[in-house]
Amino acid sequence: MKTGIIIPCYNEENRINKDAFISFIQKENDFHLCFVNDGSKDNTIDVLLAIQEVNPTKVSVIDVKKNAGKASAVRVGARYLHSRGDIEFIGFIDADLSTDFEDFDGLLKTLKTNSKLSMVFGSRAKNATENIEKDATRALFSKIIKMLVYFILRLPIEDTQCGAKVFRATLVPILFEKNFFSRWLFDVEMFLRMKKHYGRAAVLTKIYEQSLQRWVHMDDSKLGMKDALEIPFRLLSIWVNYNVLQTLQNANQIIVEPITEIYEIPSVAIAA
Q1: In the chain, at which residue ranges do the beta strands (DSSP E only) sit?
Q2: What does the pLDDT look like over 202-220, one tens digit per residue?
């Protein structure tokens, strides 16, 4: 059984560290990389297929034909990895490797050594070290997000939006059965789904927030000022859907799956 790592990609042709990913798959045998190209308008798909050519048995590429957002890309990747049958743990990291493989491996080791845990996620805020680099503007927005997120979740989580998380594959039906309401604040929805499924007391024993040793914000972020200003309204929408309308449980949500093409060896059919 392996650990599957989802790498959502949107217009990453000039940002993705091709050499780092190739080096990783050449020396690691217990991991399977799942790149999800989220309707990129550049040549990202060609870069991903070039990485896959190095060792096709360790890399799958899912090409989402129309951009649907990071939430959808991670969901597609998680459902695919879960359907393979050879994946025990699933995680995701950003394509720019702002969280590197060493830190990800640290999250995975914590999850593997504690059978009570179902998810371990990185934190740029908890016990932050001098190796964590973040610009002042993003730091301010992070504080605003943190306050709003605590109001929604009522869970003692310092950093819900860190792009490095790993969880047991058995969580996939709970976390990814339905579409997310947000394109990029889906991490909040993941915790809400766990809380609603297990209850607050139980979920606190199943999740663990682990400080990162290194995290560097890369330039050319996909999150612009307009998006940042919309964060409070997006979070309010999530709160209304989950806590007022209880959409997750009581409404018939129409699930529209994106059109995808899967490049893999051997061929594995994605679960319905």
Answers
A1: 2-9, 31-38, 59-64, 87-92, 119-123, 132-133, 165-168, 207-211, 215-216, 260-263
A2: 999 999 999 998 766 655 5
